Amino acid sequence: MKGRAYGNVEKNDRHECTSNARLPLALVTLLSCLFAATVVVQGEDPYLFFTWNVTYGTLSPLGVPQQVILINGQLPGPTINCSSNNNIVVNVFNNLDEPFLLTWNGIQQRKNSWQEGLPGTSCPIPAGTNYTYHFQVKDQIGTYFYYPSTSIHRAAGGFGSIRVHSRLLIPVPFPDPEDEYDVLIGDWYNTSLSALKKTLDTGRRSIGKPGGVLINAKKNDDGGATFTMKPGKTYRYRFCNVGLKNSINVRIQGHSMKLVEIEGSHTIQNVYDSLDVHLGQCFSVLVTADQDPKQDYYMVASTRFTKTVLTATATITYATGNGKRAPASPLLPEAPVGWAWSLNQFRSFRWNLTASAARPNPQGSYHYGQINITRTIKLVNSATSVDGKLRYAINGVSHTDPVSETPMKLAEYYGVADKVFKYNIIEDQPAADGSKITTVATNVIDATFRNFVEIIFENHEKSIQSWHLSGYSFFPVAIEPGTWSPEKRKNYNLVDAVSRNTIQVYPNSWAAIMTTFDNAGMWNLRSMALDRHYLGQQLYISVLSPEHSLRDEYNIPDTALLCGIVQHLPKPAPYSI
Questions:
Q1: Of 151, 211, 301, 573, which has the fewest beta carbons less than 10 angstroms from its beta carbon?
Q2: Are residues 527 and 401 in the same domain?
Q3: Closest CA to 80 of 107, 59, 57
Q4: Mean of per-residue pLDDT scores for the chain
Q5: Where is the Plastocyanin-like domain positioned along the sequence (predicted)?
């Protein structure tokens, strides 16, 4: 779909408002201006409304019929196509046979972790009922995605794209593309959802190798995904890795890719033949249709760092009428080998300091490298066994949701946190004696509002890790082999690290990120690998404002679902200005 779209309405790329039908551009522009004036008077940003029906369905992504999760009968689900500061209202009808939640990966939910859609923040939507999410994409632009956060539902689909465009008056550091394409890539299992869950619940082993790779829920060009380009025109491709286990490399036959955005930040516009997209990560690139228009081309997505390389292709075709066309060459461009190449590519990513993002001021006006660190948290991931069952842990603590089935955010808000979980079971540093004892518990750390923190991820394992922090963007200032120590700070990039929300950590390596805990709420720091996340490699960060003020955090929505021990408690006094 070309340009910006709101709901199911096609719009010109630089307009902000909605329409109920396709209208001539001049009329759309006039209505946009009139509506914008109305919005200014009312003091609210535009609203986008969606109604989503979540159901089971049967598809054959890898050639074998299997049960999947569909939204409005489709996989991927509907795209949320919006602009910075838009209000998003999504009425979700859960037609599955078990509770369900959606989370909005990368959307920061400023002051509003109530809408984060995680088991630690929200009660799940019971089967046969509905719940309406209402959140604002406040001061954000970029490429994101949503997916199910309950159980291991994301192994069955239920994912879709989120595009957040710059507002009309904010300059973008590249010309408007001819069109935009969402490209959701990732590995996929032929195994049924119930069988995968049983494997993890019994704890004998992990879920093993995936069955293949998909591009927009399809495997190859035989009925697979297709993208059309006009000769000489430039297109924006938004790649997100929505997979479960593996990093994916993407490339296009005969075409280079100019990187322009990573997870909400404009980048220095380097050109690449291929890109490593790790679990949970999103990239935007510009591709120009500058090759032979009578030839088709393959887009290739393949696994990285695996003994057996799994590959999917999609077809890129030029719009040249009905003339005879040559099929894409079966000789696919090769992927890079080894993680040293991937590390060097990461180091080539740089923040565009002069470009504006969601606000008029340049990105580089925020000098993160000049802020004093107030807390250092060093996290070491591990695979372990507890009572004979596989668990994944951070600093010896493996997260489990509360036995009372009460989201921690609700327990905190209702003043009964002590009946649901204990803060700070996990230490800021791994055990000095190298203890391998693992505690299975609800894992919540208490953080000071507006503190500037440094988080170190240290990976002693042989597999790559991918970490996501909800509620924030952060600066990944370094990734290096070996182990971290304070003197490593001299190697940090304190000038133009790309602000983002997901970071990879290579085997036997470490990564350092910096961020300010200025978004009050309950936020999740998690492994993006399905098995690791489900079996404990995650924690929550409680960031409370001492003022209990609406300036810092919104009240619980009147429509919020209640469950667990807070279900029948009186509602606490609301925050005020």
A1: 573
A2: yes
A3: 107
A4: 92
A5: 53-167, 181-318, 406-547
